[in-house]
Design brief:
The chain starts with 5 loop residues before the first strand and ends in a 6-residue tail after the last helix. The chain folds into three domains: 6-47; 68-162 and 292-357, D-Maltodextrin-Binding Protein, domain 2; 165-287, D-Maltodextrin-Binding Protein, domain 2 (3-Layer(aba) Sandwich), CATH 3.40.190.10. Helices cover 42% and strands 20% of the residues. By secondary structure, it is α/β, with parallel strands linked by helices. The strands form three sheets. The chain has a five-stranded mixed sheet with strand order 4-3-5-12-6, with helices on both faces. The longest helix is centred in the N-terminal third of the chain and has 29 residues, at 32-60.
Length: 363
């Protein structure tokens, strides 16, 4: 009887063997159905064995067979890049491979995100991302998106949330969220707010305030956070929705005043500053955030996703790491992997509704 020739097949990135399709049926008294049953049983057994082995490897942290790449859609030195570099060494220790940070800035970070979305889903290529490239850009760059972040990427860890800080010039007669909203309503159509650009979370935070509180504060986009913040201090614009890192030096030297934060809770870095949601009854439930996370290509095996979640989340809980993240205005918000997936989807839906209501397009 001829010996069956075996060819490779793939089981979630592992290599196994199945009988080659050219083997003869009806030989040695074996009928076609029996032969098919034998082949299927063999393949299922091989797959089960390989997956069991893979699961054990993931659990032990030994999946990596080559360098792990953390792709960042921003230049070195920014908040997302800092997160990537903080988790690189703990990942190297856990997986026994070099972990390289690869900066691919451009196109609102979509170049980096697209490269990871198209990567092999084996855990060796990951995206360290802000909210924009995975939950916001699809709503404002519809003609330029070449990937579907909710289908092509899957979240594996949340580094933390990044609330906006609402700042005004120190000479402005506003100190609390309630005073801010009252001031804006009393001067309807006369005030302005700055952000670091069109279609980012800072922009959407101001538009959501307008929609919920009934204010009419004009958005003035800037090319970057520094000029957007500086122009508040000199009175060129009334207020700004800013990252803490950009605003803190001018808050500390007394030229700016922080009057609200856009998270539902107070920031540990600004314990005396209340959430904007306290500004008026109509703002109950208000929250608009940026946030940083780690994403893998869709199709990455579930056990590997769980292992990545465990390693990255553990690294981000290190006391020294938490302190470094805090300087960047990043606030921990612990959640399970299932909660994280739900969070990303709900954030995408929220961004989409705000962008549509405000007719925001960044083409």
């Amino acid at each position: 009887m001829r010996r069956e020739r075996l060819t490779p097949f793939s089981v979630r990135g592992s290599v196994g063997f199945e009988p080659h399709a050219r083997c003869g049926f009806g030989e040695a008294g074996i009928g076609r159905e029996d032969k098919l049953f034998t082949r299927r049983a063999f393949s299922m057994s091989a797959a089960a064995a390989l997956l069991t082995g893979s699961n054990n490897a993931y659990a032990q942290g030994t999946f990596a067979t080559q360098n792990i790449r953390l792709v960042v859609g921003y230049p070195a030195g920014g908040g997302v890049d800092i997160v990537a570099r903080l988790i690189a060494d703990p990942m190297k220790a856990a997986f026994g491979q070099a972990v390289l940070v690869e900066n691919k800035p451009g196109a609102a970070a979509m170049i980096a995100a697209q490269s990871v979305a198209r990567a092999t889903p084996d855990g060796h290529t990951l995206l360290v991302s802000a909210a924009g490239e995975v939950a916001l850009n699809q709503h404002i760059y519809k003609e330029r998106m070449a990937y579907d972040p909710l289908k092509d990427l899957t979240p594996v860890a949340l580094a933390g949330i990044v609330p906006c800080v609402v700042i005004v010039a120190a000479t402005t007669p506003v100190r609390t969220p309630a005073e801010l909203i009252a001031y804006a309503l009393a001067n309807k159509g006369k005030l302005s707010f700055s952000s670091s650009g069109v279609g980012n979370p800072q922009h959407l935070a101001g538009e959501l305030m307008n929609r919920m509180a009934g204010t009419d504060v004009l958005h003035v986009p800037y090319r970057g956070s520094a000029p957007a913040v500086t122009d508040v201090a000199v009175g060129a614009v009334t207020m700004s929705f800013s990252s803490l890192g950009a605003a803190l030096p001018l808050i500390q030297d007394g030229r700016l005043r922080a009057v609200a934060v856009t998270s539902r809770e107070r920031m540990p870095q600004l314990p005396d500053v209340a959430p904007l949601s306290e500004g008026a009854p109509s703002l109950a439930g208000y929250e608009l955030l940026n946030w940083f996370g780690v994403f893998a290509p869709s199709g990455t095996p579930e056990p590997l996703q769980a292992r990545l979640f465990e390693v990255v989340s553990g690294a981000l809980q290190d006391k020294a790491t938490v302190e470094k993240l805090s300087i960047q205005g990043i606030v921990p918000r612990p959640m399970t992997l299932a909660e994280l997936r739900s969070f990303v989807r709900s954030e995408s839906e929220k961004f989409g509704k705000v962008a549509e209501a405000a007719k925001i397009r960044a083409e």
